[in-house]
Specification:
single chain, 331 residues, alpha/beta, FAD/NAD(P)-binding domain, 2 domains, seven-stranded mixed sheet, elongated
Length: 331
Amino acid sequence: MENVVIIGSGPAAWTAAIYAARASLAPLVFEGEPQGIVLPGGQLMTTTEVENYPGFPEGVTGPELMERMKAQALRFGVRVVPEDVKSLALGDRPFTVTPNYSAPVQSHTVIVATGAYAKWIGVPNEERLAQGGGGVSACAVCDGALPFYRNKVLAVVGGGDTAMEETLYLTKFAKQVLLLHRRDSFRASKVMAQRVLDCPKVRVLWNTRVVEVLGEHAIRALRVADTVSGAERELEVGGLFVAIGHTPSTGFLGGQLRLNDAGYLWVKPGRMATSVEGVFAAGDVTDDYYRQAVTAAGSGCQAALEAERFLAHRGLHETIVVAPPAAAAAH
């Protein structure tokens, strides 16, 4: 019988694990498995430089930040299973968590921190350059201020409010921003769209879709096609930001938890409690607005504290004996 099972391995999951472990809850973490460009650790695993996470004045790579968070959790005795969770049974208590290969486990509480993954265009070289830090990104706020992108012509793909926000944000650093949209009108709100259209550093390319990202180690251009005529041409750019949305990882839940209007997990206002008592959520699986590592980590802290209080108020805390952390065992 587990006190708390944490599903995920991004900033929210590891922060929740650290707090739960320090509260003597002996958390069990299912960190997931590699699936193409999606790696355990979440979106930060494809981010080369992180300059806006507090405590790293010289910056840190996304993979290194996740490695250090995991190491900190392991230091406090967190147990980690490198598997995805294929299903949860939330109808009875305790809850049953069924991973891909291992035996099911039962837990008094569950923290869902499975994140959300960027939607990619699906053209050649796009994901390869995104994973290798070659100038393709799905988060302007995360990456746009990096030296790599400064004073260059940058491209943004999308037509919703997110694309408008990312485009305007990039104008602070870029020489020019090209906004590529497949149609002849935006889906964004009129206010946001007008701000983009009025910005002198933005050039909108209507009826334009990306066919291929060009560049060996770093992006040098885009091959684009006119959606009306089909004519193709090359656009020289120093960076590409894909802003066509994110998909929260909620499929394995089988519709047992309430979603918000954007399709993300619903949580009580100001809390991390979901629609099922004893199940909490944290990080980007609940967040369609901020989507930052630091906000995810903060919500992971909240979820762990709420799980601890849930267990304490109901007298459900189990005593679980785990092996001591390696550092402590050495002494």
